[in-house]
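Protein NLRC5
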Amino acid sequence: TDPISLQLGTENLCGCLVRLLSKDPEWLSAKMKFFLPNMDLGSGDQSPDPTQRVIQQLSKLHTQGQSTWQEFIHCVCMELDVPLDLEVPLLSIWGHGDGFPRQLDIGEESQPDSQLHPGLKRPHQSCGSSPRPKQFKKQEQELAKRYLQLLRTSARQRYADRTPRPGQPLAFPQVYIPPILQWSRASAPFDAQEGAVTGDPKAEDGTDVNIWDLFNTKANRGPRVTVLLGKAGMGKTTLAHRLCQKWADGQLDRFQALFLFEFRQLNMITGFLTLPQLLFDLYLRPEAGPEAVFEYLQENANGTLLIFDGLDEVFQTAGPEDPASALTLFSRLCRGTLLPGCWVMATSRPGKLPACLPTEVATVHMWGFDGPRVEEYVSRFFNDQPSQEAALAELRADRRLWSMCALPALCRVACLCLYHLLPGSSPGQSAALLPTMTQNYVQMVLTLSPQGFLPAESLLGLGEVALQGLETGKIIFSAGDIPPPVMAFGAALGLMTSCVCMGPGHQETGYAFTHLSLQEFFAALHLMASPQVDKDTLSQHVTLTSRWVQRSKARLGLIDHLPTFLAGLASCACRPFLSLLAQQDEAWVGTKQAAVVQALRKLATRRLTGPKVVELCHCVGETQVPELAGFTAQSLPHQMPFHNFLLTYTDLAALTNILGHRDAPIHLDFEGCPLEPRCPEALAGCGQVENLSFKSRKCGDAFAKALSRCLPTMGSLKKLGLAGSKITAQGISHLVQALPLCPQLEEISFRDNQLKDWEVLSIVEVLPCLPRLRKLDLSLSNVSVSTLLSLTNVAVTCPTVRMLQVRKADLIFLLSPPTETATELQGDPDLRGNANQRKEAQRRSLALRLQKCQLGVHDVEVLIAQLREGPHLDEVDLSGNQLEDEGCQLMAEAAPRLHIARKLDLSSNGLSLAGACRVLSAVSMCRTLAELHVSLLHKTVVLKFAPEPEEQEVIQKRAAFPGSLTFQMPSDPLPCAPRIRLTHCALQAQHLEHLCKALGGSCCLRHLDLSGNALGDKGVALLAQLLPGLGALQSLNLSENDLSLDAVFSLTQCFSTLPWLVHLDFSSESQRVILRGDGRDRDLSAAGSLPEFQAGAQFLGFGQRRISRSFCLRECQLEPLSLSRLCETLEKCPGPLEVKLSCKVLSDQSLETLLHHLPRLPELSLLQLTQMELSPRSPLLLADIFSLCPRVQKVDLRSLHHATLHFRSSEEQEGGCCGRFTGCGLSQEHVEPLCWLLSKCEDLSQLDLSANLLGDAGLRCLLECLPQVPISGSLDLSHNGVSQESVLYLVETLPSCPRIREASVNLGSKQSFWVHFSRQEEARKTLRLSECSFGPEHVPRLATGLSQALWLTELTLTQCFLGLEQLTILLGLLKWPAGLLTLRVEEPWVGKAGVLTLLEVCAQASGNVTEISISETQQQLCIQLEFPHHENPEATTLRLAHCDLGTHHSLLARQLMETCARLRQLSLSQVNLCEASALLLQSLLLSLSELKNFRLTSSCVSSSVLAHLTSGLSHCHHLEELDLSNNQLGEEGTKVLTGALEGKCWLKRLDLSHLPLGGSTLVALTQGLSHMTLLQSLRLRAATSLEELGLSHNQIGDTGAQNLAAVLPGLPELRKIDLSANGIGPAGGARLAECLPLCRHLEELMLGYNALGDPTALGLARGLPRHLRVLHLTSSHLGPEGALSLGQALDGCPHMEEISLAENNLAGGVPHFHLGLPLLRQIDLVSCEIDNQTAKPLTASFVLCPALEEIMLSWNLLGDDAAADLARVLPQMGRLKRMDLEKNRITAYGAWLLAEGLAQGSGIQVIRLWNNPIHPEMVERLQSQEPRLDFAFFDNQPQVPHGT
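Structure:
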């Protein structure tokens, strides 16, 4: 029976279902129980007839609703063997919601054939009462049957007509080989194991057993839309026609109707289009009754298949709702709004698919041919056996041609070319003509062309048509688009084909190229050969296009291979063909080819995405230009990602071809890419790939098999990743066989592959075969516990495994390859013999992390047995398992034998309190236990370990001190000092005895943490009695144990019973209770503090120290009784004691109780009361403590909340006291009692009453009481709300307080009020008043008070609002019997008033004006007055700073000349001198015969002004100081000024800084210096304070040095010479060295940063000045010879204090001394290339320099040996403060030696060790041991020496 008859037959669907289920009643009963679990399905009311029983059961199922019925129907189709003709209607009618019947009519009248497909009725069933509708329905069915038969006949005839006829150019057998198909979604058929439909290449032609699988989906609601994706040339169109042909031949019998449409034809339709028009007008019209046929197709849509070829060629821009769009019909068919239930299939290139496709669409990838398919195709293409063998031999010999044949279209072209090339050619010759895809097409054109003739014009015509079509988006051309000759040529050669384009109501013939790639090839020919196309236009077509797999756009574009063909035509092999085609010479063609190559070169320089890189590789490979290939390969980035786009074997072959020209390694990362299963084979032999990673669910066993074949050939591969795939045991077996052949692999990742036990174990078994492997990642695998234990056994036995981590999804092996590989061991018998010795020498440590693996007690026993035979363990983490008490105890007992170096984690294993105690007992004697932390509340059980004793012995041997000094090493290794933490374990008092018994066996327990338990006061009291039995702890934590003050009293008694107890800290509210020992002793004695260097812990011993103890009580209610009890307990505390108390409120009674107990605490050194409220009376109580307890040194009370009392020790009974009562609310009423209490203090050095409420009245009262208070230091009254009244009273009080030496008041924002005292009466007093806002009424009183303060010598008034008039009044009223007064006024108006006004004010002073200083920028006026007034003053000083002397006033001149007749100092700074000012100064200078000091600095003056000044200075013969620095003078002006030096034989200081001293000026200067026998200081540059002669940082050169050398003999009193950085060479240096011995008093010589060389050093060594103290020769180009000679000359020098030879290449010439330098304080040898050997004599010399304070040896080559030498001498250098060893080669061992030596030199403040090769962790540990080791980049503040 044919399929149509089956579909139109009268068999009832229900009847078929009933008959099917009657064959398997047990299955139906089981399903009834599954779907109806709550319904009684007893046999009481069931029919004995099996058929009726089935009907009853189906009725019950149907009554449950639509969803239950649909699920049942899907179960039937999935689980039973349902015939296909029954499965299709079952799923199409009842498998969806629209087919659910309202009622299931199966009764007694309805037999099993009582129901039909909806819409069809039995022929004998009546329709209404008339027989005519029955007859009409029958006629419709007949019309439909005839149309369906016509469809098959028409299709059969169509494909019969396609049989090629002899004589046609392309008349070859229509060979069809099914390509590789791969499902991309879960809708793949169940019989396709890995998603690839491979077909049967051996099947006979005309059959394909697997094409049906495209429509064999069995998903619940599987999509009826299938999209076939394949690159151009994969055979998509061929497959579509193949399906149509098979259907015509009756093989696809499940479909009644099949329609095939090509979008390239649908694009031609522009009118309105409906679905009937699409089916009947564009495909095949029924002979009659189209409406009836269409209605039938709608009713039987599940039997209709519509194929749309070329979805990527859709060019319509209309939206999916446009009724005129063919794409609209396609969209509605896909979404089921048209012809619901039909099957739709579309073909497309991969890329951006239209959005109209439903999300559940099934996509199938077409991958083309693999090797067997290529062979099969070739065998079928060639008829005779010799041709087949010859063609296959050519393909197999040429790998590139073989890889191109993976593309079916290209395989056909290659076979066509070989068909014509093989006859008459030698082996390999034919394939050599087909190296690229382009040349295949060129050869095809030559093959099809007439013999001996190339139709250039016709070919170019075809190319022009092809290019226009690509640019306009046209594939089908009309007759008018192509010239007739070109059309005839293309049709004759089979290059073009015709088609009939039908539309609604019209029909048209169209023409198209046989394939789109052929159209692109001819377009490329036109671009390369047409003279109308220039190079720029050609280059614009060389582009790259990304083809990501996205669904955002519906258009791909036509251009796919055009750039590739252009690149191929740029090959030199195509040049003759193009020259012939273009009818141009080869040079013309070469120009165009070069343009293409250049365009590709530019593209290679860009940063390209993955798709563009692949396309570029195709193009570059086509060019056959090695230089371009090499450039492209080198331009690729080191990390090359390929994400989310389709890749074929051909793509990877092109990439591999380019990588072959690359030198550097590359990393390839493929993620989310649809990959052809045999893709990896293309990478075979690629030696440039270092990392290879694949991550895609589309990779299966076939992919793994192909990967396994290529892996052994990739010799440089180090990292392999295959993640997120669908690989199974079969694929793993292939990979496991390949991995041993890749010994160079360092990392393998198979994560997220859902591997099972066998797969995991098989992978792990290859670990010994991979000697360089560092990581194996098998995460997201499904392994059992037994397999996990097998993995641990592998980790234990495999010598390279360093860590196994299994946690949730993680399963990772980390490995450390040995130094020798297994291959090397096998090859050398000697190496094999010593393998065990090497294994012992290179002991490995293993880390096991098995977290949340459901391990039980039995599993732990197995694991322990494995680990006992294994290596040392670094870490074992078994947290999150099910060990419980027994398993944890087993692990704890086994821990000492398992050699765990760091940590054992047993957290979250269900441990109880009893189990915790057993664990503690099990590890109590473990000598390597460092810490045990058990917290039952947080489920924490962690054991940490220290290095093993034998490892400590090795470290101790390494730490032996070099040389004669060795450490006192104990006979047995020190056991580890463990830290036991039993927190939140619900421990109570009754558990303590058992706990302490277990702890008593612990070796050297140091830290015990029992916080978070329930001990209570009773438990703590019991624990205090048991603590002595636990040894010398370092800390005890009892926090959060519900304790009260009673527990504190119990613990306080431990100060006398526990010698180790130093600190006790108790906080009531936060329940923090900490007992600690001495940190210093802990660091030195605890084995865990610095295990690497324990050997020197007792280095030369430490002196006995008195340990200071600390008691801290916070947040408690301190009542008098409690305080009394506490103090009585503390009386028994030995040694110095610090007490810190904190509570909310402390009453006066409690404070009095506490203070009265203080005399009974002789060892108390500090009492601190913080965070508490004290009463206003507390300052008086605390002030009285000075008399109650004479040991009180300082009382500090702040804000009535914080009080601190410092006590003297018994050895420090002398010294002043200090009282600070700040912010205590003190007012006038408190002043008298406070002063009375303080008067009882013998020596009050400081009193601070700031921030109180004294006010003017209180301050007046205090000042009145001051004579009674024995203050010898300072009194601070700041921030007390005082006014000008208090300031005036202070001035009036000065005469009555003779011990006041200084007072300063600021009434502005600072609000400061300070009074400083001396122990004896002070003859000189200073008063500073700031921001006092004095008014006119205050000035007379201020003047009166100042006139009575006879001892006042200095008065400063800063911004006191004292105006010009008030200042004049003040100066007139100030009168003293005798003395000097300096008055400084700083007001804003001083800078604006002008010099003349200020001088007029000064002239009105009642005393003699001896000094005037005016500074406009500082707004300051300074006047020095001398009393009583004399007519002829002897000492007058005038300083005019920042003033303008441009105006001459004769009266003022006379007054000044009278007042300043004996002026000794005149200073002009930053002035603008005009002619009048110069004349005034000239007159004044002429009258100053005793002028000692003249300064003219930072000024701009003219030459005439200089002449006046020079004239005036010429009469000042007694000048002792002349400063002419920083003036803006030319060289002429400088000469004029230097003229003033004549006759200045008394000159002692001369400053000519920043003056242009030329050669002639310098000669004149040196001549003048020869007459200045008293000159002590000469300054010739800025910002330098140099004595004697300073010329540094100039450029005097050798000439200037020689001139100075000529002058030096005439300056016998020189003490300091600084000629640094002056460009002096060996000649000038040697001349200076000759003259320096004549400077008999020279003390400092600085010649650094000059290229002096060894000649200067040798000259200095011959005549070194006897009194030399400082010698600086930094960066002076000294060598070993000069340095050694200097060292010998300096040896024994009695006055030398500082030597700097830094930045010289001394090498082996570092100076060392035999006699020593007794006064040497500093030696600088930075960056002198000093190594360990050179440093030995130098270090020994340091001992001979007892005064050394600083040694600088940074930036040298010192190592640990030099550090050992330095550490040996450090204890002997008592005055050494600092040593700089930055940027050397000292390791942690050398630094530790320095720390041990440093401990013996108490005066040393810091040793700098920045930038030495020391690990940061060791830096922290070394600094914790010795804080004076400084490893920071910036120099830290020097540490306070120990012992001070």
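Residues 152 and 223 are 26 Å apart (CA to CA).
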